[in-house]
Design a protein that fits this description.
With 510 residues, the chain is an alpha/beta fold. The protein folds into 3 domains: 1-49 and 463-510, Urease, subunit C, domain 1, CATH 2.30.40.10; 73-170, Roll (Diaminopimelate Epimerase, Chain A, domain 1); 182-455, TIM Barrel (Alpha-Beta Barrel). The chain is 36% helix and 20% strand. The chain contains 20 helices and 22 strands. The chain has a 5-stranded mixed β-sheet, with helices on one face. A 5-stranded mixed β-sheet has the order 8-9-10-12-11. Strand 11 (152-154) and strand 12 form a beta hairpin. It binds zinc ion. Residues 255, 311, 345-346 line the site of zinc ion.
Length: 510
């Protein structure tokens, strides 16, 4: 048993009114906290004037892609097709895997022919920012079995352009995961874990889409995650409830899709998009499952005592999730449903009635605040897709909290960067003023809120007696800094279950 005292800086407990200038940790748990005279301990951590806050958490992450992008093929904010093609050409000179992503609107057409010119006959994959569509080279396209699959974009002569959406894109992911060596995948995950630590993060919820990436890749992922100290509640996106249960998980789904995304015109909407979807696709987006399929998964998981998460972005997709939980509540009783705090991932387009129904069913909202920062402006992507009157009823953080919904924040990294400071800033500066949160609430959503999305993992997410000793030491106070200063926050230290994980040269843990 080792005791450690933290003192010498400001301490924000995550509670509204607690004064505290020291914290005593016993191995991995907070034993005491207080002001003034402090107890003796085996070790001392001098905060050196920094601000100690509860470690940050991210409720929706894709670790493997996060690590892969970090190796230099991240095209966020790159609007030039030529620049992307040039990066692929450069990468093709090495033996490394030809995978990049995060593109959005581009200045010139980019399809398989442009990629081929850069990579020759090698398979290459370029993912859109939302990960619901991608562009592939001819060499990759030719290896995929796409005959009866939806989402293959075609030119005037009905030849594939290389642009793939949803189901068709998922075939490309499968190829991609299968062709990564175990070592490449492991390195990518470990790189992503370091990114998390560097931003004060002690917990991420991995949304592993088994339906897209296959079980082999999932098993490799689980083995790697077993090596690290970072807390990683894993959500396996599959309807194979029994298999997930046998693996020891008491949760299933996560990015189990009810619909797609706004970027790819595949969010499932009650009313049609105002922008023109690509030819051949529906004007109200894409529904992945029937009501029966959704209800069936929910019922089987509920029966086994498992929490369920589903991906629902458009209002019609959220309607479907609410309908299915309503049926399960009739069958099992409302309290039985509430007990698991089942999750809706994204929960973006929602009228008051769905917010009230979700609160009644005890559902939690796993939200991505930076989606609003990136795409929620009056002239932003959402408004372009569905018009401002509907777009302003998206990502209704304050309304959800008022209704009593548990709100946990996440990045959906790589869709937005794995950076809770960015997420907190987005909540504080929401494009719709009535939905803004204050600094304290924003911190709560990225700490305690996330921990409540995975309720079985123990007491964590605040600095209080009995909670896990997980902290971030920051160079400024997230509760008082304003504007861009929050985004510039530097993390001086990260502790996970009592052990220092960041900076790397002082880490006691992997
Ligand atoms: Zn998702």
């Amino acid at each position: 048993m080792t005791t450690t005292i933290f003192h010498g800086g400001a301490i924000r407990t995550g509670g509204r009114d607690e004064a505290c200038d020291w914290v005593l940790v016993d191995d991995d748990v907070i034993a005491a906290l207080g002001t003034g005279d402090r107890p003796t301990a085996d070790r001392t951590v001098d905060l050196d004037g920094g601000v100690l806050i509860p470690a940050l958490r991210d409720g929706h992450v894709h670790l493997p892609a996060t690590g892969l992008y970090a190796s230099g093929m991240d095209f966020r904010d790159e609007g030039s097709s030529a620049a992307i093609v040039a990066a692929f050409r450069e990468r093709a000179r090495t033996g490394e895997i030809l995978f990049g992503g995060n593109f959005e609107e581009l200045d010139a057409p980019l399809g398989r022919h442009e990629l081929d010119a850069a990579v020759g006959d090698r398979p290459a994959l370029l993912a859109r920012a939302d990960m619901h569509s991608c562009i592939v080279s001819s060499a990759l396209l030719n290896t995929l079995a796409l005959d009866d699959v939806e989402g293959v974009d075609r030119d005037g002569d009905s030849r594939p352009t290389g642009f793939l959406r949803e189901q068709a894109a998922s075939e490309a992911w499968k190829w991609f995961d299968a062709s990564l060596t175990a070592e490449q995948q492991r390195d990518a995950v470990l790189a992503a874990v370091d990114i998390a630590y560097s931003r004060g993060v002690a917990e991420v919820h991995e949304m592993f889409v088994v339906e897209w990436r296959g079980w082999d890749s999932a098993e490799r992922f689980l083995a790697t995650i077993g090596e690290v100290a970072l807390n990683v509640p894993v959500y396996l996106g599959t309807d194979e409830v029994d298999r997930v249960y046998e693996l020891g998980f008491r949760r299933v789904g996560g990015d189990w899709f009810l619909d797609g995304s706004f970027g790819s015109h595949t969010a499932w909407m009650r009313e049609r998009f105002t922008s023109q979807p690509p030819s051949g696709s529906s004007e109200t987006g894409l529904s992945y499952r029937t009501d029966e399929q959704v209800h069936d998964l929910f019922r089987r998981a509920q029966e086994k005592g498992m929490q369920v998460g589903v991906h629902a972005i458009g209002d019609a997709a959220i309607d479907q999730a609410i309908r299915a939980w309503g049926r399960v509540a009739e069958e099992f009783g409302i309290e039985a449903v509430r007990r698991f705090r089942h999750r809706i991932e994204h929960f973006e387009c929602s009228g008051d009635e769905n917010i009230e129904a979700a609160a009644h069913l005890g559902l939690a909202a796993s939200v991505q605040p930076a989606f609003d920062a990136f795409w929620g402006a009056r002239d932003g992507l959402y408004s372009e897709r569905i018009g401002w009157d509907r777009a302003r009823l998206m990502n209704r953080f304050k309304t959800m909290i008022r209704a009593g919904i548990t709100l946990g924040g996440g990045s959906d990294s790589t869709v937005t960067p794995l950076d809770p400071f960015l997420q907190m800033d987005a909540m504080r500066r929401h494009h719709v003023e009535e939905e803004r949160l204050d600094a304290h609430a924003a911190l709560w959503v990225m700490t305690r809120g996330v921990s409540r999305l995975a309720p079985t993992e123990g007491n964590r997410g605040a600095i209080e007696r009995g909670a896990w000793a997980e902290f971030a030491l920051v160079d400024r106070d997230p509760l008082t800094v304003e504007g861009d200063d929050l985004l510039k926050a530097e993390v001086l230290g990260t502790w996970v279950q009592g052990k220092r994980a960041w900076p790397k040269n002082e880490a006691e843990t992997a």
